[in-house]
Amino acid sequence: QSEYRRGTPAPGMEQAYSVITLWPGKLPNRRVMVLSGNTTWGTQAAAEYVTEAEHLGTLNTHLAECNRKRQRSRHAPFFQILIAAEVRDSQPLAVSYITHHDLDIVEPGA
Length: 110
Fold this sequence. Notes:
With 110 residues, the chain is an alpha+beta fold. 27% of the residues lie in helices and 36% in strands. It is built from 2 helices and 4 strands; from the N terminus they run ββααββ. A 4-stranded antiparallel sheet has the order 2-1-3-4. Helix 1 packs across helix 2.
């Protein structure tokens, strides 16, 4: 899906969005992770997403489903993840996976 429409947050809540990107590093077998959000709280939600076991488990489930659909044994090493966060009083309360996009990038030195 190339376009995602913003939902209506619950009363008293705001919606924030984040993109998490995993790129190849400048050296072989190195990675660069970039966390970005449309607000400060969106960026905070991205940091929580990549450091909390519950969210990483959810991400692994989505990546495994992607592998099944594409009939492959390993997931692409580089990708972007779109997440949404419900924010109240400048704190992300609920963070959810929306989608991910595999990046067709050749790693340096490969």
